[in-house]
Each structure stands twice: as C-alpha cells, then as structure tokens.
Amino acid sequence: MTLSRRTFLAAASAALVVPRIALAQPGAGRVVIIGGGFGGASAARFARDHFPALDVTLIERSRTFTTCPYGNLVLAGRRTIESITFGYDRLAARGVRVLNQSVTAVDPAAKRVRLADGTEVPYDRLVMSPGIDLRWGAIEGYDEAASARMPHGWSPSLQPITLLRRQLEEMPDGGTFVMAIPDNPFRCPPGPYERISMVAEYLKRAKPRSKLIALDAKNGFSKQPLFQDAWEELYPGIVEWRGASSDGRVMRVHPATMEVETEFGEKLKGDVVNVIPPQMAARIARDAGLVNQSGWCPVKPATFESAQVDGIWVLGDATIAAPMPKSGFAASSHAKHAIACIAASLAGRAPPPATLFNTCYSHVGPDYGISIVGVYRPGPTSLVEVEGSGGISPRNATMTPERRQQHRQLEALYADGWYASITNEMFG
What we know:
CATH topology of the largest domain: FAD/NAD(P)-binding domain
CATH architecture of the largest domain: 3-Layer(bba) Sandwich
Strand order of the largest sheet: 5-2-1-9-20
CATH class of the largest domain: Alpha Beta
Strand content: 25-35%
Number of strands: 25
Low-confidence stretches: 1-26
Number of domains: 2
Radius of gyration: 21 Å
Shape: globular
Distance between the termini: 32 Å
C-alpha cells in the first residue's frame, strides 16, 4: 500500500527525536521538573536515558496521570479510564526521584522549590510543565459549581471524563447533547471535534434518535474539512455545528435549567451540556511570574527557557509556542529539546539547534482516523513552521472509496501506535 509523503511524515515523526547534543555527556547538575504530564514525564525520562549524569527530580502532586488524549474514546465506550491512566513507578525505577507533593512556591533567586509539607528542593535548572487552568467565569454563569451539572471533561486533574460519560449514558434516546467550544488558544485544538465525533459514534449506536449541537466561538477549526466530511458520511442528521458567525458563541449558561445562551440571545436546552471554557496557564506558572498579559507563558523559541524568568524552562500547554499547537506530542517535543539545552548550559556549551515536531491524530469513527502534521524551527521572536513540512490527511473527494477506507484505517492504526509509543516513552 503506497503512503503519501504527508502520511509518511505523520508516522515517522512519532518516533523519538534525539537532539545531536544528546550524544555528548554533560556535566552533572540538579534538574527539577514540576508537572508529570506529557511535558514533564517526557523530560524526566529523556534526561535519565540520555544524560545519566544529571540528578533528576520530578514533582507531581498526583500518584497517577490520566491522559487527555484518548479521553474522548472513553465517551465512545472504546477505552476505559484505567487504560489511559499511568503511574510513575517505572520512572522512579530508572533513577528519577519522584515527589508526590504540591508545589507552593518557586524562588528563582535562591533556586529552590517549596513543597506543601514545607520541604525546599534546590535546583540548578528548573523545568515547569504546569498544564492549564480553566477561566471560571469567562462564560457568565460557568463556575466550578456549574461544572458539576455541565461538565467540561477537559482537564483530568480538575474533572474526570467519566462524569460526562455517565451523563451521556443516562441521556434519553431522542435527547440533545449540547457542546460549547472556546475561541483560541486552548489545549488540543482538534480535541473538541474529535469529541463531537466520539459522542456522535456513541449516539448512533446506542441512542440513534438523539442529536448533538456544537456551538463554537470560532468560524474555523483544526482539520475542519476532514471532520465535516466524516460527520456527513458517518453521522448524517446527528451532528450540527455552528460557528461564531452563525450565532455559535456561548455567552452565558443556566445550570439550573440546563440551558446555554448565545451571543444573539438564543437559548438552547440540553439533556447533557458539555462546556469547554477558555483556559490559561496553571496557577503555579502565574504565581512564579512566568505569564504575560495573555495568561500564557512566553518562551525563547530557540531553547524554551522562559522569556520572563531566567533559569526556568517552560513546556507544553502553558507556553506561547504558536504556530505549534498545545498538544501532547508538542509537549514531548518541547521536553526533549529543553533537556538538551539544559544539559548544554550545564556543560558550558551553546544550545543545540532546534527542530520540533507535532502530529495530532483524531479518531472520528470505527477504523477511521485523520491527522495534521507540522515541523517547526525557531525564528527571531517565535517558532515558524517549516514550509512544505506537513499538512493534513487527504480529503475524501481526492481518493477512491477503496483507497479512502484503507487510508483512514491506516491513520487510526497510526494513532493507536503513537499513543502506545508516547505513553511507553513517558511511563514505561
């Protein structure tokens, strides 16, 4: 079966990319990593495997990590929450010192991190992969209490996806599932649209008289033609998506009546209401002075060192790294390059050149996957996408039906392979 250049790149970029400097041994140093998700766990594993002289401490308040990727498959009934939850024992066995505590303060001047129990952890270099917080109140009426009735399911540390799954199971056949999707930037740009697909897959199978209405604060979204092709093909009559120009922007919610209200005053009632609110960098990053007025963390594009505070490297969703998206793959790519830069700085060498990769896979139906790929390098003030380096999966109309089926099946397999590979890389 012949693969396109773009599809080959999507598969190949899932492999571990080791910066050249990793082949040289750095001097010893204490590296402390805050946050044990895609960025932090990848950084800890990469540091131990490629720079064994480094003393590596990972600080993560939870003893397990549930991934956002593949959480939408829990909604479709294709995955269990246990299958996307991982522990840190194997990282510890590799020599990473794992501290399951909350961080209460970072002191860049003294190069110390203070923990909830009062312990202070010294460092030579600090890596922060703090993740996101939700902007409670950005949508009128949507606060943490409202999220119990109108789940977001967007941050496993704040709310498990199983709450939304339970509401979906309890929804009557013929009911309405309403989604509110935020404007950019937010964690995992294709994520809401994969969620639409997985909920629609479940409704088609289990509650075929039901409907999904997605209200979007944007007029366009990642992989839009591919998702809409799939919805038309797989879920006719089930999915309705409205962009901002079609009164898709949700301005306020009414949890007591399970209604959302749009910009022009329309009220829609749902049996299940999934509100994904606007987001910002997590509080520890804000408290450490790493964010600017946007609520996100600017970084130096060549190294991922904070542009606000010297000596701290910032990874993952919390960063301003556009055009690179906020994704698990991107966070892992940030992590490897940042650790290589840290090792170089401890050894008194210049940082290695940066080439960063991202692939975002999405499941849209049984044996049906799509993807978007990008390769990035640092420019003078921000990352830039390498011209001609990536793109999205080919659209349905460009292939014969047989070829389309084969291609979509391959992409679904690539997605599963990527997920198995990256979680093993982090926790295996």
